[in-house]
Design a protein that fits this description.
Length: 716
């Protein structure tokens, strides 16, 4: 699968203790419900939602997948990548063609099609802690999965709040089982069984009172048992804070060594015995953890490939942290120890939040620098972005890996101006310290950002003159940097300089071992020299040769030039009047982009080429649909990613509809976007399209202005 790296720890179901309360009737009800489209288990914290689903899937006749959500899953792509990875564990080969790019609807559609094609049997997908998806694209993806997945996929969702999923239609067709707090609340008999399981022997009257006052809340019953069965008076202030009261009683009843261990490890979201030992200074941390488990003190064990990890139930963890802070402990010191322990364990991303909580951002920077460039392409990319926003830039302004990662993150979210600044700083720093290989890679990224942003050819050419002579000729990625420079010169219509840079790329030592480099050269020459010089047929022949070679060597195409080559060919086909061929080429471009995980980047390019070809063919109804579908995609782009094509298409559509006001409005917007972009070799063609639209709408003055602008651009 060409999807983001997967955090396998999020795919582990909670391990059930040997003495888990069986709850046979409720579990059987859920197992039966897993044959429907959806099971929802919605209740506040501490009702045993996760435990119930874990018990149910263990008895389920179908294979099942478990996904515990965290803030990484806000992003629909990350959520769906984990769902796909879980299915792949049960259905080998699943997801080999998945790209999971574009808006959530497109990603879910792709996942659904893959399930339909490769998963013949029933399968259950459990999504735990789904309330963490609320307000983000992950929630939209979940709702779409409920609506659109094939009928052999059964979803079970545990959440503290109901999510925006289409329940009414599912209820009407009997395809949903809803389990709520009333179902999860313990019966009096179950409360008695749970009290006995905690090692407490209470008389029946005391159990009845405990059950009545906890209302069967699982966590309340357990904590009351830990506290010796005591409860606050119904009218006291503590009654409003039952959990904290019971937790306090249970906590104070533990030996002092255990209390100290609980408090010190409360700063950890999760921990291993080794990390706990480093934070607490305990020589027998593993034995203490086993004692905490034996005392049922709300510790959760998760089995992993590298050994077990532990965490406290979030309610208990919250209580412990509050008590730790109120007790005057040196929390910053504990956080710093936690950061050091995780970093020593080879988990720098676990260390960073602790360093920040300790007020040690310098240590966070030290932990991030070795891994930042890899994290950019992982599900933790958003966490990295938040950390870099939180850490004062002055602390990492001289760290090239962080500068490069920051620039890449900015580019990915469309903040091209700041991305260019960060990437240029990264190149400057890398060349200054002699990191020639990474400097060449950073310059390639800089060139890509400059071309995408538009109108910055002069800045790019100045950067090339400044940096490229400082990069050692043996740098493996220097040919790529030269290719990026050739593109910059091409978009500035400096055709001779394009050829100079292409020749320079081929003459470098690293070019001799780069078999796909000649195809890169052919692609750039065809689109940025032959085509703008009016040699369309020659450009198409050259692109055909380049694409054939890139397809044969796709595994070696580290610059992802194949999608660009298809885009180049589609543009040339459209410009020489072969509109139907251009549309077919766009289908190939879309397929290749999806396969390479670049569909989101390619989407605006595919859209504006379709605008041109559909208008040329007079397929106005399809153009209207394309324009409406693409509105959100182009909103706010301005001159970036050639955003001027959108208002230009709207102007042509308005001319067809005989709407002169809309023609004027969109033509002015397109021209403003062109100015924002800066010089573009296709400016003459865009202005000519606007002149035709203005003329068709009877706007003589606007038609003359745009026609004159087209002629002037062509002369330039």
């Amino acid at each position: 699968m060409s999807v983001p790296p997967i955090l396998r720890t999020r795919m582990l179901a909670p391990r059930l203790p040997d003495d888990s309360l069986p709850r046979e009737d409720l579990v059987r009800r859920v197992v039966d419900g897993l044959s429907r489209r959806l099971v929802t288990v919605v209740a506040s914290a501490g009702y045993g939602k996760s435990t119930l689903l874990a018990q149910a899937v263990e008895q389920c006749p179908h294979p099942w997948v478990w996904l515990g959500c965290d803030d990484r899953m806000h992003d629909a792509g990350v959520l769906l990548a984990h769902v796909a990875a879980g299915i792949e564990e049960r259905v080998p080969g699943f997801g080999a063609r998945l790209a999971l790019a574009g808006p959530p609807r497109a990603q879910v559609a792709e996942l659904c099609n893959e399930v339909l094609a490769t998963v013949p049997e029933d399968i259950v997908v459990v999504i735990d802690d789904a309330h963490l998806l609320l307000g983000a694209s992950g929630a939209e993806a979940l709702a779409l999965m409920v609506a659109d997945l094939p009928p052999n996929v059964h979803l079970a969702v545990a959440s503290r709040a109901m999510l925006p999923v289409p329940l009414s239609r599912l209820r009407a067709s009997g395809r949903v089982l809803q389990v709520g707090e009333a179902d999860l609340a313990l019966s009096e008999r179950e409360s008695a069984d749970l009290v006995r399981a905690q090692g407490l022997d209470l008389p029946p009257a005391a159990v009845r009172d405990l059950h009545r006052r906890t209302e069967g809340w699982v966590t309340g019953v357990v904590l009351a048992a830990q506290a010796g069965g005591t409860l606050p008076d119904p009218g006291s202030d503590a009654a409003a804070h039952l959990f904290d009261y019971l937790a306090e009683e249970a906590f104070l009843s533990q030996p002092g060594v255990l209390r100290d261990f609980l408090l010190a490890t409360a700063v950890l979201e999760r921990f291993t015995p080794e990390v706990a030992a480093a934070v607490t200074g305990s020589d027998d941390a593993r034995a203490v953890i086993e004692e905490i488990e034996a005392r049922h003190l709300f510790i959760v064990r998760a089995a992993g490939e590298d050994g077990d990890t532990f965490r406290y139930h979030h309610l208990f963890a919250r209580f412990l942290r509050r008590r730790l802070a109120d007790g005057g402990a040196d929390v910053a010191d504990l956080e710093r120890r936690a950061g050091d322990a995780w970093r020593q364990a080879g988990a720098p991303l676990e260390a960073v939040p602790h360093y920040l909580a300790a007020g040690a951002p310098e240590a966070a920077v030290d932990a991030l620098e070795p891994v930042a460039e890899a994290v950019v392409h992982s599900p933790d990319a958003e966490r990295l972005r938040r950390w870099l926003d939180e850490i004062p830039p002055a602390l990492w302004a001289d760290r090239p890996a962080l500068l490069l990662a920051h620039g890449t993150l900015l580019f990915a979210r469309g903040d091209y101006g700041h991305a260019i600044d960060a990437l240029e700083s990264a190149v400057d720093r890398l060349t200054a310290i002699g990191e020639h290989g990474r400097a060449a890679s950073a310059f390639f990224a800089l060139g890509r950002a400059l071309v995408t942003a538009g109108g910055r050819q002069r800045r790019g050419m100045a950067a090339a003159r400044r940096f490229l002579p400082r990069i050692d000729a043996s740098a493996p990625m220097l040919p790529a940097a030269r290719i990026a420079t050739a593109r910059l010169y091409g978009y500035a219509c400096r055709y001779d300089r394009v050829e100079d840079e292409l020749a320079a790329a081929m003459a470098l030592p690293a070019a001799r071992g780069w078999a796909v480099l000649p195809a890169y050269v052919l692609s750039i020459r065809a689109f940025l020299v032959q085509h703008p010089r009016g040699r369309g047929d020659q450009a198409l022949g050259t692109l055909g040769e380049a694409i054939g070679e890139l397809e044969r060597r796709e595994a070696e195409d580290v610059l992802a030039m194949l999608p660009y080559a298809h885009a180049y060919r589609a543009i040339v086909l459209a410009d020489v009047g072969r509109a139907e061929d251009a549309l077919r080429e766009l289908e190939r471009l879309e397929a290749v982009s999806a396969r390479r995980g670049l569909l989101q980047v390619a989407a605006p390019v595919i859209a504006w080429i379709r605008f041109s070809t559909l208008a040329t063919l007079g397929r106005w109804g399809e153009l209207a649909e394309e324009v409406e579908r693409s509105a959100a995609l182009f909103a706010g782009l301005g001159g970036q990613v050639r955003g001027y094509h959108y208002p230009a298409a709207c102007a042509r559509l308005a001319a067809h509809r005989r709407d002169p006001d809309a023609v004027t409005r969109n033509a002015l917007a397109a021209r403003a976007s062109l100015r924002e972009h800066g010089y573009a070799f296709e400016e003459a063609m865009v202005e000519a399209d606007l002149a035709l639209a203005a003329r068709a709408a009877g706007l003589g003055s606007l038609a003359r202005d745009t026609a004159e602008a087209a002629a002037a651009a062509a002369r330039r």
